[in-house]
Known about the structure:
The structure holds 2 protein chains of 2 kinds. By secondary structure, chain A is α/β, with parallel strands linked by helices. Chain A has helices at 13-23, 63-72, 85-94, and strands spanning 5-10, 27-34, 37-43, 52-57, 78-81, 99-106, 109-115, 121-127. Chain A has 2 domains: 1-59, 2,3-Dihydroxybiphenyl 1,2-Dioxygenase, domain 1, CATH 3.10.180; 71-132, 2,3-Dihydroxybiphenyl 1,2-Dioxygenase, domain 1. Chain A is built from 3 helices and 8 strands. Chain A has a 4-stranded mixed sheet, with helices on one face. In chain A, strand 2 (27-34) and strand 3 (37-43) form a beta hairpin. Chain B has a two-stranded antiparallel sheet. The radius of gyration of chain B is 13 Å and the shape is globular. Chain B has helices spanning 6-13, 15-26, 32-43, 49-61, 84-89, and strands spanning 65-70, 73-78. By secondary structure, chain B is α+β, with helices and mostly antiparallel strands. Chain B has one domain: Winged helix-like DNA-binding domain superfamily/Winged helix DNA-binding domain (Arc Repressor Mutant, subunit A). Chain A binds chain B through residues 68, 71-76, 100-102, 104, 106-107, 111, 113, and chain B through 27, 30-34, 37-38, 40-42, 49, 72-74.
Amino acid sequence: MRINLASVLVDDQQKALRFYTEVLGFVKKTDVPLGEHSWLTVVSPDDPDGVELVLEPDEHPAVKPFKAALVADGIPFTSFAVDDVQKEYDRLTGLGVTFTQQPTEMGPVTTAVLDDTCGNLIQIAAMGAQEG
Amino acid sequence: MGDVSGNIYKALADPTRRAILDELQERNGQTLFELCTRLITRHGLSSSRQAVSQHLDVLETAGLVRTRREGRYKFHDLDTSPLRAITDRWRL
Lengths: 132, 92
């Protein structure tokens, strides 16, 4: 058994596809109509056969309150690895992305937390010191 | 209204709460998540998110922290002005 998927619950699949590809830099892998929604996945261009990120609809009634509670407390839903957190922070803020946490050294890693415009906070992280 | 100034001394008595104030002084306006992560990684404190939230409530009662809602986010800000009561009372 292998771990091949990660998931993010999004309020609008098309908006999420635009943000995760045009802003974050992932590429679309699969887009299969499945009733009201799609089976929609993106991958990293650095690892096109690697783990796919599923952009799932957040329609279940339990999900929106859950997402809102995490966001209020600044808790990211998941974390992506980058080479340099400060560089990504500078690039993404230049593209209009909102961060709830600037690049901060947290022990052996540097992290930052951004808003994915689809109801989630997402962390970016790298080993080592990269604070501005 | 009770002894309002008593709240400051109670607030400052706890080492985790002092660490929270240290971190907010370094960077003001933090989410609960950022504060908790800093306490764990920089101070080796093992407080749960719930416990940190309770510490923030004590600090807020003392007027040393303010919670600010900005859209969907909640940020915690430091307000050191209540500390003036200390140097007003025992002058430097």
